Amino acid sequence: MRILIVGGGMGGTILANNLARRLTGELKSGKARITMLSASERHMYQPGLLYLAVGRMTPDELYRDQASLLEPGIAFHVDPVEDFQLDKNCVRTKSGKTHEYDVMVIATGSRMHPEGVPGLAENAETFYTEESALKMFKRLQAFQGGKVVICVGVPHKCPMAPLEITFMLHDYFKDRGMANKVQLHYTYPIGRVHSLENVAKWAAPEMDRLGIKYETFFNIKEVDGANKILRSEEGVDIPYDLLVTIPSHKGMEVVEKCGLGQNGWVPTDRTRLNMEGRSNVFVCGDTTNLPISKAGSTAHFEADVIGENIAAMVKVGTTVREYDGKVFCFIEAGKDRATYAMFNYENPPDPKEPTRAVHWFKMAYNKLYWVSARGLL
Amino acid sequence: MAERKIVDGRGSFCPGPLMELIAALKTVEVGDELEVLSTDKGSANDIPEWVNKVGHEYLSTREENGVWYIVVRRKK
């Protein structure tokens, strides 16, 4: 069986390694073959960008060579897909090569799209790329005080990012002795400060305690950069001195261009994780259109299920497991405390009070990630 | 004729049905309808509240076997 994995991010990498371990014998005998196509020779630990933006990590800590993370037996090519030809069970790459498959997994991820809101890209700081996170940190360093407004687009990658950057900014300015010179103003698209009700119940009093203002039912309409005003669809204007955004996201351009899904999100069966109407095409991570968090843990848990199922398809001709919607997210509550949220399609999360212990576990996970990507954790 | 698109937010705690609706509204034309499916009874209140606040049109809500079907129309 020819297994093609498109995308070398967290989901694709964990899946490839998971499969290579399950199919060691089949890879040796030639009964199975795993090929990965990626746009980059480097693998980025994307959650590290949050820390980069507040000067708590440096870029070199975010990267490993992709090839070094992969099990032997996986054919890895830095050659991004430019055309998906699902009816022919093949893809065409940037170099002009054609790769045929029996089973394909699309794990191409997502990208920020601040350009969708007038004035946002030009006037707001963000941290979803190395370049933007470093730019934001330098802007923070130069900031001498005023009103910092956080605004949130929909949909966005990492549902905890709006809260985390807000609490981390609070501690950043406090450490600089600027607590009295900076007013943080958090905004959020729905009627509470986070989509998870139990997280909102924890975060709102925490913001009250720290003196962070918040405005709910606030969806970004436009940014008037000349007058430094953020405007919402709901008709509220908020002046700012420094604007930080968690911008809306889209799936990758090639997915949309090839007609696989509107805005680059591929219609996906919520338990089998196959592309709707295609039993031999699976979708992993941010690329799905599922109503669950676009987060690394989602990609990880989906990859576990897809790996077990594809291996079973090779060995017994059928899938054996269903995805239950499992997500696990750490929530940094500042520079030295954290909590977490774990939930699935049936069970909501119940986050506990933030502790130093969970924060240090998150710090450890920032290093352990590379073991996770190898499919060992 | 206006289209009706389904937004399947069943089992969605995060981002949740309302966030799914907000994202989906950007992908349809003015005049089109969206039917949100939600297993969270809170959606029956917070979706109409937001839709009215932002200036879209709330059309109807019905509940069937623990699933709420909430229909709205994009107005702007």
CATH H-level name of chain B... which superfamily? TusA-like domain
Q: What is the number of beta strands of chain B?
A: 4
Just give the CATH class of the largest domain in chain A: Alpha Beta
CATH homologous superfamily annotation of the largest domain in chain A: FAD/NAD(P)-binding domain
Task: Present the secondary structure layout.
The complex is a heterodimer of chains A (377) and B (76).
Chain A: E1 2-6, H1 10-22, H2 24-29, E2 33-38, E3 42-44, H3 48-52, E4 63-65, H4 66-69, E5 74-78, E6 81-85, E7 90-93, E8 98-100, E9 103-106, E10 110-112, H5 120-123, H6 130-142, E11 146-152, H7 161-175, E12 182-187, H8 197-210, E13 213-215, E14 220-224, E15 229-232, E16 237-239, E17 242-246, E18 249-251, H9 253-257, E19 281-283, H10 296-316, E20 327-332, E21 338-343, H11 356-373
Parallel strand pairs in A: 1-2, 1-9, 2-5, 9-19, 11-12, 11-17, 12-13
Antiparallel strand pairs in A: 3-4, 6-7, 7-8, 10-18, 14-15, 15-16, 20-21
Helix pairs in contact in A: 1-10
Chain B: E1 4-8, H1 17-25, E2 33-38, H2 43-54, E3 57-64, E4 67-73
Parallel strand pairs in B: 1-2
Antiparallel strand pairs in B: 2-4, 3-4
Your description of this structure?
The complex is a heterodimer of chains A (377) and B (76). Chain A is an alpha/beta fold. In chain A, 31% of the residues lie in helices and 24% in strands. Chain A has two domains: 2-109 and 252-326, 3-Layer(bba) Sandwich (FAD/NAD(P)-binding domain), CATH 3.50.50; 114-248, FAD/NAD(P)-binding domain, CATH 3.50.50. Chain A has helices at 10-22, 24-29, 48-52, 66-69, 120-123, 130-142, 161-175, 197-210, 253-257, 296-316, 356-373; strands at 2-6, 33-38, 42-44, 63-65, 74-78, 81-85, 90-93, 98-100, 103-106, 110-112, 146-152, 182-187, 213-215, 220-224, 229-232, 237-239, 242-246, 249-251, 281-283, 327-332, 338-343. In chain A, strand 20 and strand 21 (338-343) form a beta hairpin. Chain A starts with a strand and ends with a helix. Chain B is an alpha+beta fold and 76 residues long. Chain B has helices at 17-25, 43-54, and strands spanning 4-8, 33-38, 57-64, 67-73. In chain B, strand 1, helix 1 and strand 2 form a beta-alpha-beta unit. Chain B starts with a strand and ends with a strand.
